[in-house]
Design goal:
The protein has 400 residues and is an all-alpha fold. It has helices at 8-21, 28-42, 47-68, 71-85, 90-104, 110-125, 131-150, 155-173, 180-193, 198-209, 214-217, 220-232, 236-249, 252-265, 269-287, 290-303, 308-321, 328-348, 353-364, 370-375; strands at 383-386, 392-395. Helix content is 73%, strand content 2%.
Length: 400
């Protein structure tokens, strides 16, 4: 009755008598006992008394195991109390968590698993355990939490386990042990065994996305997981990310495929413009297909008329693939169109002025001379059409 009234001070004598004289009478001796003892720990007059009560608390856990078993669960709770009241014994707490997990497996309490991962990371940071042990513990803990999420009795419990799982992932990612190699070695075989497991694929993306370098995001595992998630839940952003990954990997066909997917799915004109521009870069730099690059750049401009870089790209396409005409004059004439595009670029995007001016100066120097124009009877200021694949009109200009 004193316990029910939260009068732990007056509850202590009766509790102590039961603890010492009838240890098998009821499990509540141990369930209530931890709360009573913690009250006395928190209110101890000095450190020596506090330490004595901590010893009693740990004994309560040991006796509960002795008389009522439930060793996996009780060990886990003993470990959490040890961390709370004797944090300097973190290695001993870690060993208790390890034994608890080994015995409890899928039935381990989710909050205890969080403490287990925490002690794992702390010990690794202090050089007491290896990177491989961190990865192995994370793998086992993560698998159990996933199992518990799938089998949670209700949404409230599931939500708590999901939060614990996210916390464990964050601890692992920030531990310093979760480099690309470790994650790939851990999840590569799992993904190959269950490529249709989308939750696992999403976890792989989450872990590899946290890496700072392209090593993670350009790995086979990342790309395969990204494609698996996209096939189930298609979105413009995910297709775009996949396209960018394949572009960087030099997988041109797949990059083109997913850029087209992203463009088709995207509804925001400005984002679609950026995708067309990147597709244009792919055609320009990797495929060396300058007509398709120009087409993509024009589609970019159609969605965003102020996309100056698209005009720069068209100018570069003309410079790289515009060897139209037979005579020297005709071949130089392409420079008029090239410069036109660079002028348009800085007119719609002033931030490109310096880059555009440098290019304008370079290609203006390759205009035909007035003497060359005289022999073909073409006057300055005249409008002419540059043929072949370009088929665009421009104004005649000569080097002064």
């Amino acid at each position: 009755e004193f316990f029910n009234q939260k009068n732990f001070k007056d509850a202590m004598p009766a509790w102590r008598w039961c603890f010492l004289n009838c240890p098998e009478a009821t499990k509540n001796i141990y369930i209530h006992g931890t709360t009573i003892i913690e009250y006395f720990i928190d209110n101890a007059a000095d450190d020596s008394i506090k330490e004595a009560y901590i010893d009693t608390l740990l004994l309560v856990y040991d006796n509960r195991i002795k008389y009522f078993d439930q060793k996996p669960m009780v060990l886990g709770r003993k470990g959490t109390s040890m961390l709370k009241y004797r944090p300097h014994l973190i290695k001993e707490a870690y060993d208790i968590f390890t034994e608890s997990f080994k015995l409890g497996g899928n039935e381990s309490e989710y909050f205890v698993l969080g403490f287990y991962m925490n002690t794992t990371v702390v010990l690794y940071s202090n050089g007491i355990i290896t990177k491989e042990e961190v990865v192995e513990n994370y793998s086992k803990i993560s698998d159990v939490l996933n199992y518990q999420i799938e089998n949670a009795a209700d949404d409230g419990k599931r939500k708590k386990i999901v939060e614990a799982s996210k916390s464990v992932e964050d601890m692992f990612v920030n531990s310093g042990a979760a480099d690309c190699g470790a994650i790939i070695n851990l999840f590569g075989p799992k993904f190959e065994a269950e490529p249709e497991n989308i939750d696992q694929a999403k976890k792989i993306l989450y872990l590899l996305d946290r890496g700072d370098s392209d090593e993670c995001k350009l790995s086979d595992l990342y790309m395969n997981a990204a494609v698996a998630v996209f096939n189930v839940d298609k979105s413009a952003s995910s297709a775009h990310q996949i396209a960018q990954g394949y572009f960087k990997r030099g997988d041109n066909d797949n990059a083109e495929k997913y850029y087209l997917e992203a463009i088709e799915l995207e509804t925001d004109a400005l984002k679609k413009a950026d995708m067309f521009y990147e597709l244009g870069l792919l055609y320009y730099g990797n495929f060396k297909n300058f007509p398709k690059s120009r087409q993509a750049a024009r589609s970019c401009i159609a969605n965003n008329p102020n996309h100056g870089k698209a005009y720069l790209l068209i100018g570069r396409c003309y410079a790289a693939g515009g060897a139209c005409g037979e005579t020297a004059f005709e071949k130089k004439s392409i420079n008029w169109l090239i410069v036109d595009q660079f002028v348009k670029a800085k007119s719609v995007d002033p931030e490109l002025t310096d880059e555009a001016n440098e290019l304008i100066g370079r290609y203006s120097g390759s205009f035909p001379t007035q003497e060359e124009g005289f022999w073909v009877n073409i006057n300055e200021g005249q409008t002419v059409t540059i043929g072949c694949w370009i088929n665009e009109t421009t104004t005649v200009r000569y080097i002064k």
